Amino acid sequence: MTGIGPLEPGEGTRAWDGPRAEGRRPAEGAPATPAARYTRDALYAAYARYARHRWIAFTLLAAIALLAGGGYLAATRPQQRPHSAHSPAPAPYPVQVVDVTYLDGRTTPAGAPPRSFSFAVLLSVTSGPPVTVTRVAQPYAGLSLTTEPSVPFQTKAGSARKVTITMHVTKCGKAPRNASLPFLDVTLRNTRAIQTQSFIPGPRYAEDLSGALEVACSNSFG
Amino acid sequence: MRQRSLIAITAALAAGALTLTACGSRDSGDKKGSDSGNGGGTTVVIGVDAPLTGDLSAMGLGIKNSADLAAKNANKQNLVKGVTFKIEALDDQAQPSAGQQNASKFVSEPEVLGVVGPLNSSVAESMQKVFDDAKLVQVSPANTGPGLTQGPDWQTKKVRGYKSYFRTATTDAIQGPFAAQYVFNTAKKKKVFVIDDKKTYGSGLAATFTEEFKKLGGKVVGTEHINPDAKDFSAVATKVKNSGAQVVYYGGEYPQAGPLSKQIKAAGAKIPLVGGDGIKDDTFMKLAGSEATGDLATSVGAPVEDLPSAKQFVADYKAAGYKEEYSAYGGYAYDSAWAVIEAVKKVADANGGKLPSDGRAKVTEAMQGVSFDGVTGKVSFDEFGDATNKQLTVYAVKNGAWVPVKSGTYTG
């Protein structure tokens, strides 16, 4: 239903008719026999009647068009029933579908700065839309890292990607050499959200990281 | 002849009536026990042990209600044909001795095929042997003490002590170091004052935090133990103030952590108090007051509200009309109870739809292989009985509420 009420002339409607009809009279000096005057008056009256109801007709037509258009849109809109059992489930949050596991140490790429070392992790996406890794970081002030492939990179559901991480020691004093549970901060993005998750790869990663730091900082600097 | 016909008709009607009566009583729940006999009408009881009264009841009642919801949902779905699940909840008041008595009571009731709980690691220690001797499976939604699954020397040699013990919560072996990493690297606090309540959970958590904090290069400027029954911590608060600590780590639970935080700030040390899952309850803020803003807590698992898998649980819990919140362990308690239900189902399925006479041993055995998508994510257990899903979250007090500020996943 719309808010338009019955279309009938109201009290004030007629008050506008007189002057409008008057304004349509023929110009001065036109013939004015009684018959002609009668015919002319009849035509004037008919025209005035049309003029008086014209806006009503327009309003009525506009209302019909509006209703028809609204009805069409309502009938053809996408079926969305929030909270209904049939509504499609939203995409999962990226952290709920991504796993990062430690693989092993890798050869450090040629051209990496001194006191660098590399290892590989496996990043897998279990379900949902593709997930893009936009950042990989680690929490220690004395280390920086790069990845291969370099960020951002995307991984689809049901697949896994090997990521080689090369760390560079910038300050040995700020790179703890025997932490039990070091982690990697990975920023993930999919159609649902952007989230940063700390992945704790476990004791093998902790041991390998400690060993690599020990070697890199054996001639302590920084 | 006519008389014989009448007798025959009467006998047939009586037999029919008796048959109908028998059918009608199949699911009445009158018949209890692990042997379902004809495979129908068996009631399986899931025991629940938690502090239902006292300071920690907010968490305990959330555990009880969530386990109850799991049983009701399993019944609604008719998950195990011919089996009706119900819970029996006993109050351990967070006391090991009460927990042990409750364990004995559950063991004495043959219809109990699994137990959910307890909340406290110290209580679990007193129950484990009782359950293990009876081959009665126990799944805790909240115990975080590493020794419960990996033995007292877990740091050097992991040995599983009890095959009947499982848990859906992550351990302090991960929680403590995770907190240390956050405090040192993210919050940039280098000097800590460590306090614990001398209990299994509190002292264990404080130890794993301290070890990692030191490894990272942090300095412990003071340590203290408090009496869990005390409410006046002003002497400890003064020591904290004089130590120059930038942060306090507390291994313990919210009934003491709240007043401790308040009194430390009142002593003039405007520094955050950090604790584990034992302080992550809304009651903490009520006790700590407005100056608790900035205090931190780690908790095992991801925030239930953020998990797509938990949406149905949250809606069902609300619809069920429980008076108390599901609290920190509700999702884990639901999953613990569901794990028992799944194990019972496995046993029944493998036995032609019936529960065998050695149901308890079989359910305990089946638990090791249970795997399902639960409220808190994938639920399964490793070789020690620990949850394979190891998620952690750091929460901060903001505007009088716990707000997640960092989350982590252990993938080792």
Structural write-up:
The complex is a heterodimer of chains A (222) and B (412). Chain A is built from 5 helices and 8 strands, in the order H-H-H-H-E-E-E-E-E-E-E-E-H. Chain A is of the alpha+beta class. Chain A has helices at residues 11-15, 17-23, 34-76, 94-97, 203-216, and strands at residues 98-106, 116-125, 131-137, 143-148, 153-155, 159-169, 184-189, 194-200. Chain A has 2 domains: 12-76, no CATH class; 94-216, Sandwich (Immunoglobulin-like). Chain A is elongated. With 412 residues, chain B is α/β, with parallel strands linked by helices. Chain B folds into 2 domains: 42-170 and 304-381, Response regulator (Rossmann fold, 3-Layer(aba) Sandwich); 173-300 and 393-409, Rossmann fold (3-Layer(aba) Sandwich). Chain B has helices at 2-24, 57-77, 96-108, 121-133, 147-150, 172-186, 200-215, 234-243, 254-266, 282-288, 311-320, 330-350, 359-367, and strands at residues 42-50, 83-91, 112-116, 137-140, 165-167, 191-196, 219-225, 247-251, 273-275, 296-300, 372-374, 377-379, 391-398, 401-410. Chain B is built from 13 helices and 14 strands.
